[in-house]
Write a structure and sequence with these properties.
The structure holds two protein chains of two kinds. Chain A is mainly α. Chain A is about 75% helix and about 0% strand. Chain A has a domain at about 80-310. Chain A has helices at about 15-35, 35-40, 45-65, 70-95, 105-115, 120-125, 130-155, 160-180, 190-195, 205-220, 225-235, 235-240, 245-270, 280-295, 305-325, 330-350; strands spanning about 185, 195-200, 200, 275. In chain A, strand 2 and strand 3 form a beta hairpin. In chain A, helix 3 packs parallel to helix 15 (about 305-325) and helix 11 packs across helix 13 (about 245-270). Residues about 1-15 and about 30-35 of chain A have low confidence and may be disordered. In chain B, about 45% of the residues lie in helices and about 15% in strands. The longest helix of chain B has 23 residues, at about 5-25. Classes of the chains: A mainly alpha, B alpha/beta. Chains A and B meet through helix 4, helix 6, helix 7, helix 8 and strand 1 of A and helix 1, strand 7, helix 7 and helix 8 of B.
Chain lengths: ~350, ~350
């Protein structure tokens, strides 16, 4: 426990007394002005803001649709639909916290779903065991993630460009593999497994919960997580402190690739098909969820709980709109407004809270 | 801080070995070759062969269509190709499918430069391709416009398209009939549309609405998907939550219908009449198996018909079954409803998703 302790960017190192006194006074002043809003600046408070937003959307849903909205079936539907993009967003949280970005998540989901449902794979699965499909999807996701990571760290390619290239290439390859057809899942044990209900909770939701829990522990309670925060906050300082930044970055991209593989399995099971059209625009949805959840796009701070809330807010909004027979275009506008509002609020708080260089 | 190199090398080697093994296994899983079955690319009921089918002078036909990212579009391309192969007096030049208007304009210009005898064009956007099509017409090359109409009547010699509005009307009329025949009081009617920003989706929805108005009904809930399996699944799942009991659901497109049906199965709901659209093989199979009520056809063979028309026009022939000597200016194909009663007739025309 010697390397990361000193470089965490959110740790407040004591500065010369004059400065800190001035900073404290400024903070106190804004605290007086903002009152309750100051509470929101703490990490617990940030999540409180998200909870409030989610509650507001739910109230809107209940007010407009009554018991049609507020029942267990609907809640489970929302959760089931949220679970696929949720798993991807958890992976994306790690990459963004580590200072990078991954635009290829949707394409990797498509490629993984296509690869695991080709006739050859399904035949192999019939002959041996259905988990062959699981293995292939996870391996494809991991592989693509590794390629991304290697390009970014050792190739020195900017993450935006490297993952943009993967976005195009992966989807193109998915189209070639699938010959642009929809591949139906014929291995029934595969579909049956993902249709299971464990104590009333659908398997897809359970997988999402498990991935989120592992993600939370990984980010907040392990060295891996602390290194991620360090690398994202200040990669040069992290390197000087002894973290192998390049290797860690590769691992981050591999992680999000693995998450995409998991999401591909869930999506393939839910739609009973593998297709090169799966995962369209996932990157935007994932980034939006991560950002409104409170993770900084520039890296250095990340929250899994925030991401989960971000995903839930968007999915619930989707559901409320359908319940009220509102057009999808109006919903797209609402989504844009929410993203901008959330980021503006966060930027305001980030500017006001004292940050140590 | 640093680990000794020997265990690290071993770890690296095992990592690489694991990667190599999984890569080998994975590459074995990329084949999509189906077990040999007889496939029917552009099957169809054989109409009486006329003297028009006799070999005439060889004509070069240039074909440009959209990128085949949907089963229907793939069927368009493959049926056009297959139709051209049936005739030994057609030299078929097929350009790569593209959704980019400027790329397609370039393709048409290439055809003009190659002085083809006719062009069959399914433009990715009718308005965008109108100018180059007019150019071709002025250069003496007849253009056959398939499905998405140009914005000028001078841009094509003949237009052949499906009837999007008529599709909606067929679906709506059939829905009305179901409601009447089954005496459903106060029916709940839902609609799962495709990409809302496309005019064809708006046409279909308008047709549906108008036909329902004629029997005093209206659409109670409408969601829009994106012609993909995933979007159909999501839209349908939310729709089912919005309404406890639905009587009729019209889904515009059978490709997204795979996801729609998966959502229905997931939720265990089947109390409604499920009507589809476009006419995929999956849908026809479901109709045969009783899992779907009906589907409204939007023929993917219209490009094949376009090729036939192009040949006739280039060879200065007319449609032999008509009294009028020349090929008609505009042919709108019918949008029949396929249900359990007549599915066997149409089964071969279904396209693979």
């Amino acid at each position: 426990m010697t390397d990361t302790a000193g470089v965490s960017p959110s740790a407040s190192q004591p500065e010369p007394t004059g400065d800190s006194k001035r900073v404290e006074e400024a903070a106190a002043r804004t605290g007086e002005q903002e009152g309750g809003l100051a509470l929101l600046r703490t990490s617990g408070g940030r999540n409180l803001g998200l909870v409030l937003a989610l509650v507001l959307v739910c109230i809107a849903g209940f007010a407009t649709s009554g018991s049609q909205f507020a029942n267990i079936d609907n809640a489970l539907t929302i959760l089931r639909l949220a679970s696929v993009i949720g798993v991807v967003s958890i992976g994306m949280t790690f990459v963004i916290t580590g200072g990078g970005i991954d635009l290829s998540v949707g394409a990797i989901v498509a490629l993984a779903s296509v690869w695991c449902t080709t006739l050859a794979t399904q035949r192999m699965a019939e002959d041996t065991h259905w988990t062959v499909m699981v293995f292939s999807a996870l391996a494809v996701g991991l592989g693509c993630g590794l390629v991304n990571g290697l390009l970014v760290s050792y190739g020195g390619v900017v993450p935006f460009i490297a993952t943009l290239a993967m976005l195009a290439a992966a989807r193109g390859y998915a189209e070639i593999l699938a010959q642009r057809r929809t591949q139906i899942v014929t291995v029934s044990e595969f579909s049956d497994f993902f249709r299971l209900d464990v104590l009333g909770i659908p398997m897809l939701v359970l997988i999402f919960v498990v991935v989120a829990a592992i993600g939370w522990v990984l980010l907040n309670r392990t060295t891996f997580g602390r290194r991620t925060l360090a690398v994202g906050g200040n990669p040069e300082a992290a390197r000087l402190a002894g973290i192998n930044v390049k290797r860690h970055t590769v691992m981050l991209y591999a992680l999000v690739g693995l998450c995409c593989g998991i999401a591909a399995l869930m999506l393939t099971a839910r739609t009973t098909t593998g297709s090169s059209t799966h995962g369209t625009l996932y990157e935007l949805d994932a980034i939006a969820a991560v950002v409104i959840g409170g993770t900084l796009l520039s890296g250095g701070r990340g929250t899994i709980i925030g991401t989960v809330f971000g995903v839930l807010i968007f999915q619930t909004l989707n559901n409320v709109f359908v319940q009220n027979d509102l057009s999808s275009s109006a919903q797209a506008v609402a989504k844009g407004v929410i993203i901008v509002a959330a980021v503006l609020l966060q930027q305001r708080f980030a500017r006001q809270s004292s940050s140590s260089p | 801080m640093s680990v000794s190199t020997l265990p690290r090398r071993r770890r690296l080697l095992t990592g690489v070995a694991a990667l190599a093994v999984s890569a080998v296994v994975l590459t074995g899983c990329t084949s999509n070759e189906p077990e040999p079955t007889e496939s029917d690319a552009s099957g169809g009921t054989e109409n009486a062969a006329s003297s028009n089918d006799d070999t005439g002078e060889t004509v070069t036909i240039g074909f440009s269509g959209p990128a085949a990212d949907h089963g229907w579009l793939a069927a368009i391309n493959s049926s056009a190709q297959a139709e051209a192969e049936k005739y030994d007096d057609i030299e078929f030049q097929s350009a790569e499918g593209t959704n980019d208007p400027s790329a397609q304009i370039a393709q048409v210009e290439t055809f003009i430069n190659n002085k083809v005898d006719a062009i069959v064009l399914l433009p990715t956007d009718g308005a965008a391709l109108t100018e180059v099509a007019t150019e071709a017409m002025e250069a003496g090359i007849p253009v056959i416009n398939v499905d998405r109409e140009f914005s000028s009547p001078f841009a094509a010699r003949t237009t052949i398209l499906g009837d999007n509005y008529g599709m909606g009307v067929s679906a709506g009329t059939y829905a009305c009939k179901l409601i009447e025949d089954n005496d459903i009081a106060d029916p709940v009617i839902a609609e799962i549309a495709g990409i809302d920003s496309l005019p064809l989706t708006q046409d279909r929805s308008q047709g549906f609405k108008d036909a329902l108005e004629a029997c005093d009904q209206e659409v109670d809930n409408r969601v829009a998907a994106e012609f993909t399996v995933e979007s159909g699944n999501e839209a349908a799942a939310n729709l089912l939550q919005a309404e406890d009991k639905i009587d009729v659901i019209w889904n515009h497109d059978d490709d997204q219908g795979v996801g729609v049906k998966a959502a229905f199965d997931d939720a265990g709901r089947d109390e409604f009449y499920f009507i589809g659209g476009a006419g995929s093989k999956n849908a026809m199979q479901w109709i045969k198996d009783g899992e779907m009520e009906a589907t409204v056809l939007y023929p993917p063979t219209q490009a094949a018909d376009g090729v036939r028309l192009a040949r006739l026009i280039a060879q200065d022939k007319g449609l032999s079954d008509l009294v009028q000597v020349e090929v008609p200016k505009r042919i709108v194909l019918n949008a029949p409803v396929v249900n359990a009663d007549n599915v066997d007739e149409y089964f071969d025309l279904g396209f693979e998703s």
